[in-house]
Design brief:
heterodimer, A: about 140 residues, mainly alpha, about 70% helix, flat, B: about 200 residues, Four Helix Bundle (Hemerythrin (Met), subunit A), 6 helices
């Protein structure tokens, strides 16, 4: 009997947590998204900032904030939704994504810097490479 | 009773599966599928990040990309996101007519998005900047094309649901399906944030 009551309570709880958001949360998310989309487009298309690196960093920052806005207001990922499992899987995925992208860029940057002596590092290594090999194409490792 | 009685056969496993209502874990399962889809996209983003500078003496982003077009495209996808949100709110009010109406509005925005993207692809290929031109363009078509394919299948799914809502009404199963497509559709908008920021904007600075 006690078991039965427990499942019932669980069912009710489950029904309540399928939160599809309210009109207010959708509108908030939409307005924030519009703002966070318009600003980076304006920064790039209007060539607002002189500093190239600052523009790139700002675009990346606005993208990161907008992803969070979408995940919270449109995908309804909160610590309470699905007993926290959507939040857990999101954070796990985010960690894997960061490792994958940052790792790829890092490793491949080093490969490029160290294996193509004719490009940026041409100054000190170019002399060692005989003429004709420096076609700019990645060389066959064999 | 305070003492624990052992079952006759001494087993501690549950004699019957814990009862869950049908489909209770569908949304979480679908969300975890989306996270795996997110990993596919992150590999494609990493590929683009690595190969994005390999032009093979061909055209680069500044010669090829038209930011006005991308801005319109972004607006289309964002509008389709909010209209799908309105469809979900209509579903909460159990108003199937409004659900279908908002789904169709969403489909119109989605179709505009796809049309603009196809126009862009056609234009690029026509200019000789197809996926075979350089590693940069291969990575570009792969990433943006994969996103476009997802939107295409989302549209198919959306029309399927329009017909199903008309036929079955807003049953529990239909609400579950609409919620899954809601996650899918908003997820595609999240991926598009990465696309317009890192594929287009950052490369046009």
């Amino acid at each position: 009997m006690a078991h039965h009551a427990h499942t019932h309570a669980h069912d009710d709880h489950h029904g309540a947590e399928h939160d599809h958001g309210s009109l207010k949360s959708y509108i908030t998310g939409f307005v924030l998204s519009v703002i966070l989309t318009v600003i980076p487009f304006w920064l790039v298309m209007g060539e607002v900032l002189e500093n190239r690196t600052a523009t790139i960093l700002l675009v990346a920052l606005f993208a990161a904030i907008q992803v969070i806005v979408h995940v919270v207001y449109f995908l309804h990922v909160t610590p309470h939704a699905e007993e926290g499992w959507t939040l857990t899987s999101t954070i796990f995925t985010l960690v894997v994504v960061v490792i994958m992208i940052a790792g790829s860029v890092w490793v491949m940057y080093n490969m490029n810097a160290n294996m193509m002596p004719n490009h940026e590092m041409g100054g000190n290594l170019g002399a060692v490479v005989p003429e004709g090999q420096g076609s700019g194409e990645p060389e066959n490792p064999r | 009773m305070s003492t624990v009685t052992l079952p006759k056969d001494g087993a501690f496993h549950l004699t019957e599966e814990p009862h869950h209502p049908e489909g209770a874990s569908t949304l979480l399962g679908f969300y975890i599928y989306l996270m795996s889809d997110c990993l596919i996209f992150s590999v494609l983003f990493a590929t683009y990040a690595v190969l994005g500078g390999a032009y093979a003496a061909g055209p680069g982003p500044k010669e090829l990309f038209d930011l006005d077009l991308i801005a319109v495209n972004t607006a289309m996808l964002l509008f389709s996101s909010i209209t799908y949100g309105f469809a979900m709110l209509a579903m909460q009010r159990h108003n199937s007519k409004q659900v279908i109406g908002w789904l169709l509005v969403t489909a119109v925005f989605g179709a505009c998005f796809l049309a603009i993207e196809l126009y862009e692809f056609h234009h690029l290929i026509h200019e000789g900047a197809g996926p075979q031109r350089s590693a940069f363009l291969s990575a570009f078509f792969l990433l943006v094309g994969t996103h476009g394919l997802h939107v295409t299948f989302g549209m198919l799914w959306l029309f399927t649901l329009v017909f199903q809502v008309r036929k079955f009404g807003l049953t529990a199963a239909m609400q579950r399906r609409l919620s899954c497509l809601s996650l899918f559709w908003h997820f595609l908008d999240v991926i598009w944030i990465g696309v317009f920021s890192f594929v287009y904007l950052v490369r046009m600075v």
